[in-house]
Write a structure and sequence with these properties.
The chain is mainly beta. Helix content is 10%, strand content 46%. The chain contains one helix and four strands; from the N terminus they run ββββα. A hairpin with a 2-residue loop joins strand 3 (32-39) and strand 4. The chain starts with 11 loop residues before the first strand and ends in a 6-residue tail after the last helix.
Length: 61
């Protein structure tokens, strides 16, 4: 699973809990995109979450 190159956000794990309270494993995937960004002036492809893109922490190439 990919992680955000800026904040390190990745997948989170937990349980599905049914009405009868039986539990099964589940996974929440964060919204991560492959984006061309400027790193030291050169364009490079990074995995970045959409919250970092929206907040302007990344300068797109």
């Amino acid at each position: 699973m990919a992680k955000c190159a800026v904040c390190g956000k990745g997948a989170h794990y937990g349980n599905n809990v049914s009405h009868s309270h039986r539990r099964s494993n589940r996974m929440w995937k964060s919204n991560i995109k492959s984006v061309k960004c400027k790193v030291n002036g050169t364009p490079k492809t990074l995995y970045v979450c959409t919250s970092c893109l929206k907040s302007g922490k990344v300068e797109r190439a």
